[in-house]
Design brief:
The protein is built from 7 helices and 7 strands; from the N terminus they run βαβαβαβαββααβα. By secondary structure, the protein is α/β, with parallel strands linked by helices. It has a single domain, classed as Rossmann fold (3-Layer(aba) Sandwich). It has a 7-stranded mixed β-sheet with strand order 3-2-1-4-5-7-6, sandwiched between helices. The protein is globular and about 50 Å long. The structure holds zinc ion.
């Protein structure tokens, strides 16, 4: 298998850290370039702040979290909270980003997740994965083959059927540190707090796997490599195959 380059695409600045941060840290420890792309600036997540300032705060938090996880880069894709779309322009921008990075393993939200932006990003990545092989989308040379794709867990694990569970006990504390870097997101409205919410998901997936903390993933299930994403993940995270 040629060298893997990972790109995790989240809808909002804290999503990648929340749903696959432990795995990204594990991959980074193994020398795998693990990049983060953030579709929207999460502008709605900082009440009382104007959109531009809210985005600055949240992207700065995401960059700090990325440093803690060992992410190779953290890039904003230029969309806005509640406005994520899988438009041709959005697909072209993401396709060019994937081509420049040489990313061949994509991670993103599952298509049925709770937030409209998450569902839109799932559609964006799935559509871009094939579109990036075409010569008429974006400006960079087309890919020779579609990148592998795996879905990260859904919020609270709801309506998500995992195909693999990655043991992230070794990187769990770094994942929590990355989540705490999202200071503006400590509470998510009402009684819900980000860190305990993700902690309970990590324990649940860990119980299912038979370890202390785990992150769950599912294959994209579509041509041309329906299980390629999860096969790569297991080889990389558990056997250290590059
Ligand atoms: Zn989100």
């Amino acid at each position: 298998m040629p060298g893997t380059v990972v790109l995790a695409v989240g809808a909002h600045p804290d999503d990648v850290d929340a749903f696959c941060g432990g795995t990204l840290a594990l991959l980074a420890d193994r020398g795998v370039p693990a990049h983060v792309a953030i579709a929207t600036g999460g502008e709605g997540g900082v009440p009382g702040e104007p959109a531009e300032r809210a985005r600055e705060i949240r992207l700065a938090e995401a960059r700090r979290a990325g440093e803690l996880l060992g992410a190779a880069s953290v890039e904003w894709l230029g969309m806005h909270d509640q406005e994520a779309v899988a438009s041709r322009a959005a697909r072209a921008r993401l396709a060019d980003h994937v081509r420049r990075l040489g990313a061949n393993l994509l991670l993103t939200h599952p298509p049925g997740d709770y937030h409209a932006d998450h569902r839109a990003v799932a559609e964006l990545v799935l559509a871009m994965r094939i579109g990036a092989c075409a010569g008429n989308l974006g400006s960079e040379p087309p890919l020779r083959s579609a990148p592998d794709l795996a879905y990260v867990d859904a919020a609270q694990g709801l309506a998500f059927e995992p195909h693999v569970w990655i043991d992230v006990t070794a990187t769990w504390e770094r994942k929590l540190a990355a989540l705490r870097a999202h200071e503006s997101q400590r509470t998510l409205g009402g009684e819900t707090e980000l860190v305990p919410l993700i902690e309970s998901l990590g324990r649940l997936r860990g119980d299912q796997r038979g370890c202390r903390y785990a992150e769950a993933f599912a294959g994209c299930g579509t041509w041309p490599t329906p299980d390629g994403g999860i096969r790569r993940l297991v080889l990389l995270a558990e056997a250290g195959v590059p």
